[in-house]
Automatic annotation (TrEMBL):
Domain of life: Bacteria
Keyword list, A-Z: Signal
Entry protein name: Uncharacterized protein
Species assigned in the record: Kineosporia babensis
Any matching Pfam family: Acid_phosphat_B
Presence of keyword Signal: yes
Amino acid sequence: MVKERSPMSSSAGSAPLLRFEPSGYTPAQVRSYYGDSGSGQIAAASPYLADVRSVLDDAQVWLGEYQVPERAAIVLDVDDTALSTYTYGAATDFAGWHDVHPFAKYVMSCQMQAVAGVPEFAHWAAERGFALFYLTSRPDQIHQITLQNLLEQGYAEPAQLFCKPGTQPFPEYLPALVEGTSSHSTVAFKTATRAHLQAQGYDVIANIGDQQSDLEGAYARRTFKLPNRMYLLP
Ligand SMILES: [Mg+2]
């Protein structure tokens, strides 16, 4: 029998590309933080969105102080930075991240909503002259779907959207990205991609993501961490 391969699986079809770990919060604590009293949606008045707003405000202060140099850039993660997985999380009681097929189906449905305030932030930054790059561990096979979801949620066409290559040959700037090894980690992939941007003359003024693995490594002047109490992605 030929096993169906999900685009969220690795090219070997075995280990998923994304290795979710529990956040340490109970489902009730997560719902409370996101202001969800049963709707399965994030509430506008939630502690979560207040924390998101606070981080975006900090980023705007930081970026606002810049006389924007040529090729100044901002790097944004996608899941739970630009687009929210909350509705999927709530529907699976925050335990569905390992169910590769349902999660892939959800991602490919293109129905993910923007994290409130982030499209406006992105437009503000673009108007100031920052080039916007999206950098996600989503596999390359769903590059177009990801872009479509971003655009439908009010984001402008980015300078580029980088997804994680699943099959060799990898791009030249990802020489160490060997599947099944630690060099295939999110940190290795994202750091190498930011190094690639720098090699192209870009100066990443701000790198914004919801996971430490989005932000570790160099090649950004400052990092901004958005909250995520649903899962960890080391
Ligand atoms: Mg993320």
